[in-house]
Every structure is written in C-alpha cells, then in structure tokens.
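re: the backbone from monday

yeah here it is again, tokenized this time
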C-alpha cells in the first residue's frame, strides 16, 4: 500500500474514531433500546421494582439521546444564526416532547397527561431555566443585557396561547369540546404562523442582540467537525431512537407507578424534564458567557413552542383516535401560570436581568415542585 493511501486510511480511521466518541451517548441509547426490546417481557414481568429500574435506565438513555439531538440542532443553528438558530433548538426540543407524549398517550389512560406536561414544561422553562440562568449569570456578571422586545413578544404570545388552550376549556360544555378543540388547533396554528413570520421576517431584530464580546470567543468554540448532512441524519436517528425507547419506558412506568400513590403530575413532569435537559445546559452556558438574549430566546421560546405546537398536535391526535383529553388547568395551576407570566412581564420589561429577578423565578419553580409533591 502506498504511503499516500496509508495516510488517507489513517485520517479516515481517526475521523471515524472521533465521531464514534462524540456519539457514544447515542450509541448507548441504541444499545439500551436493543436490550430493552430483546428482554422486554422478562423485565416487565419481574415486578414493580424491576419496572421502575428499567424506566429509570431508559429515562437516562433518552436524556443522553436528546442531548445529542440538541447538539446536532445546535450545529444547524450555528450554520443559520439567530433567530433561525434558536428556532431550530426549541423546535427540536418540542419534537422530542411530542414524540414521547404521543407514545405515552397510547399506553397512559390519564386524560390530563398532556395538560400536566405542558404546564410542567412552562414552569420548568420560565421559572427553572430562565430563573436559574438569570440567577447564575447575575451573580457572575451583575446586570445582563438583552432585547426587551423579545421578552414582551414571547410573554404576550404565551399568555394568549395558554388562555385559549388551557383556561377557556374549563368553561366549554363537554358536548361542545370537540368543536372547541378544532378551533384551538386552528387558532394555535394561526398564532404560530404569524409569530414565525415575525421571528424570521421583518421583526427578526426583536429576538437578537449585538454582543461585542462575541468577537473575543475562540474560533474553535464556534466550529463542529460534524458536517451539515451528518448532523441532520444523526438528529433524525436520535428522534427515532427516543421514540423507540419511550415505548418501553411508558410500559415500565405504568407498571412501576401502579398503586404507589405517586403525584398525578409526576409523569408529565418527567416528560417535560426529558425534553428540557439540553435546553438547561445550553441556557446555563449562555448565561455564564453573558449572553442573556440566548437565555431569553431558549426559555421563553421553548415555553411558547411547547404550548403553541404541542397543543394542536395532541388535540388533533385525540380527535383522530377518540382519546379523551382534559386540557383545562386546575385552579392551582392557573394561579401558578398567572403569577409566573406576571413576574416574567415585569422582569423582562427593561432589557436588563439580574440575580434578584432570577431568584424570583427560581423560587416560583421551587414552589411548583412543592405543589407537585403535595399532589396539587
């Protein structure tokens, strides 16, 4: 073999080895899926403890796969830049959530699963992610700047979408709920269509902020060895793997939680946490790098995408399959959402964030967890 060919083979082997190391979380998730499907009946028939252990292992595998999905979405996002980049990141997280929810709905008899998941996602995104990121960023950098137009736009859109889809349904008679569901689907799609046109069109400057310090970032931090094509393929593969793992995870959870008296919202919180894990890491890195605009786009954008996209998909699925769906929030949930959105409207009104504002949201997130633990 000629030296040139040997050198080319060595480079190719090194590239394959590097790619394999980078995708080890996805490889572990695929292996977990193979094992779960191969031994599904034995594992699910081994009792409640074994079922909970299997569910926990599969949750970790799904989180690992979702981290790789988020990574490849981030690669695509860097190629196109903001606001398109943030839109890709939030849409990838919503896609993970919709896939997991749709599969769990086929096994979970609870009509409130979708409602609880969306409510938990909004609490996690706005109070958890935004709160923790603003708190940590504020402690490190003091005041952090961002475009206040983005916070105002996100806030009013979230309020409108949640009001239409999760508050008004409480007053709709059961006999008319299928008609209102069809209206909700159309309203959500109309809202998102207009918002998308604003986000990527004439008002795209609402969702961007010029940070001079970005010029000082090392160039290698902005580059990824993966190509655009491979990132798209691996992103799709990750979504497929997550769906396959969610199938067995759902069955394991149903067996493991049966008769335990666990809080009703626990499954919804779990689904929301799975989809939010990559966003948490990305938002915290952005806050510590003094890029608060990215935090606002990620946290508020994820909340809006969860409501405005998950609702019509799940409502349409429920209408098509005849699955009962309860979207109206409880009084406690409605009050928590109202307090959260009022706090966000005040905190995101001036284009500056600080640790105090972050702490207010993080305390609201702790309150949400306490209420969930109490079964409220």
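seq for it, each position gets an aa:
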């Amino acid at each position: 073999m000629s030296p040139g060919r040997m050198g080319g083979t060595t480079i190719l082997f090194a590239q394959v080895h590097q790619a394999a190391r980078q995708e080890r979380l996805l490889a572990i998730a695929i292996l977990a899926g193979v094992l779960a499907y191969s031994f599904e009946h034995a594992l699910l028939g081994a009792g409640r403890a074994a079922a909970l252990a299997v569910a926990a292992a599969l949750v970790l595998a799904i989180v690992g796969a979702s981290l790789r999905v988020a990574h490849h979405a981030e690669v695509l996002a860097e190629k196109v830049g903001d606001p398109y980049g943030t839109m890709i990141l939030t849409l990838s997280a919503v896609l993970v959530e919709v896939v997991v929810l749709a599969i769990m709905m086929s096994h979970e008899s609870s009509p409130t699963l979708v409602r609880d998941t969306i409510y938990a996602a909004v609490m996690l995104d706005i109070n958890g992610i935004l709160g923790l990121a603003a708190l940590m960023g504020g402690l490190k950098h003091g005041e952090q700047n961002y475009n206040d137009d983005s916070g105002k736009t996100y806030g009013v859109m979230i309020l409108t979408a949640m009001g239409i889809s999760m508050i008004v349904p409480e007053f709709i008679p059961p006999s008319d709920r299928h008609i209102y569901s069809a209206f909700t689907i159309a309203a959500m799609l109309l809202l998102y269509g207009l918002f998308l046109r604003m986000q990527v069109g004439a008002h795209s400057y609402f969702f961007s902020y010029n940070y001079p310090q970005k010029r000082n970032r090392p160039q290698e931090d902005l580059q990824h060895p993966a190509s655009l094509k491979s990132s798209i393929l691996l992103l799709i593969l990750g979504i497929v793997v997550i769906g396959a793992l969610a199938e067995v995870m759902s069955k394991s959870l149903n067996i493991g939680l049966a008769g335990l008296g666990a809080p009703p919202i626990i499954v919804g919180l779990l689904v929301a946490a799975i989809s939010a894990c990559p966003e948490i890491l990305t938002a915290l890195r952005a806050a510590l790098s003094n890029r608060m605009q990215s935090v606002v786009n990620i946290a508020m954008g994820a909340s809006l995408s969860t409501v405005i996209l998950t609702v019509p998909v799940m409502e349409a699925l429920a209408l098509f399959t005849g699955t009962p769906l309860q979207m109206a929030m409880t009084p406690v949930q409605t009050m928590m959402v109202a307090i959260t959105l009022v706090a966000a409207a005040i905190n995101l009104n001036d284009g500056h964030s600080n640790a105090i504002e972050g702490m207010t949201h993080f305390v609201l997130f702790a309150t949400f967890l306490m209420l969930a633990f109490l079964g409220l």
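The first strand starts at residue 144 and ends at 145. The CA atoms of residues 91 and 305 lie 7 Å apart.
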